[in-house]
Predict the 3D structure of the following.
Amino acid sequence: MITREHIFNAPKADLHLHLDGSLRLETLVELARERGVELPSYSPEGLREWVFKKTYADLPDYLRGFAHTCAVLRDTEAVERVACELGEDCIAENTRYAEVRFAPQLLVENGADAAGMLCAAARGLERAARAHNATAAVRTGADMPFAFGVICCAMRSFGPGMGAYYGHLSRSLAGLKPSRVYAAASLVAVEAALEARDRHGAPVVGFDLAGEEAGFRAGHHAEAFQRAHAGFLRKTVHAGEAYGPESIYEAVTACLAERVGHGTSLLSPGHVRDASIADPALYVRRLAEYIAARRVTVEVCPTSNLQTMPSLRGDLRNHPLREMLARHISVAVGTDNTLVSRTTLTDEVFLAARACGLDAEATARLMLGAFKAAFFPGSHVEKRAFTALAAERVGRALGIGGRV
């Protein structure tokens, strides 16, 4: 039987990890005091009671804590520190590859500063990686090195209160349709990602779209994703989390998404809202086949989904993950937000394996799927070698040898 200890001891990859949702509570308090940011409580215990809870009423309740975390991440020093600590936390629980994502536009005064924030996150993660990779265990081959990438998020929508840059942009483009304003901000974000990668050498590996789905279509941001595509940035989109399967379809067609964040409505005809779709069951069946055949990976975050989706009734057995695996859809289990969801990648994989009744071999395949779907910052040859090493180590930790 697979235990939590088996999964803890195995190398893991986290492809869906938000920087601004994964601070250490002690660091949040310290940064708030240093920067004069007001918090509901200045003790970790108080923050766990009032903000970062075990259960949430709904998605807006879940997202409330980001106002506090983003408020302390307004400078590159804070971003670098938090990224370094997050890298250290990943390493401590045997995560050996992580893609850390955030929207730098939420944190800056103007769009020109966004690339600097991405570079700061990369510096912090590099500090953590350098310390781990210099250990005797890694040098002798007893342990795997830690590798990472940074993903730049754009926002589907925003308001003036979501940050200084967004406030300025909202005022300066007030005459345009809101969708045009949101699209303009996404173009600034993708240029920041390309600048951080191409001018400064930061391992920015992907471009993402996050934020409220209902009423804010991914297709409005297609030009930014075409720019990312032209610049050989990999693409992932939050879709099917708070809207129907149509949102997933638009993510992979209009935005060329290679991965989908959450995707919980993928197999649900009852969530189809487009009245022009005459046969929702057929639509969903064909979409699922398309996703499976194209090897579009669904980034599933179990605890986060349980906390924000009342329809799951607090039980992961009600999640479509089991059916996704049965249909051989590519799945990568991630944490989403280690602070907001109060979780670790070990917890997430163990929760998924237990809820889906996976044996050791199936659990190993699930874990290895994240390595295979990674937007790895090195060459394809290097990624294959890294994934092969992970497969050998996962098999050993789970007691199945080379049968991954």
Q: What stands out?
A: Residues 4-397 form a domain with the TIM Barrel fold (CATH 3.20.20.140). The CA atoms of residues 156 and 211 lie 5 Å apart. The chain has a mean pLDDT of 96.
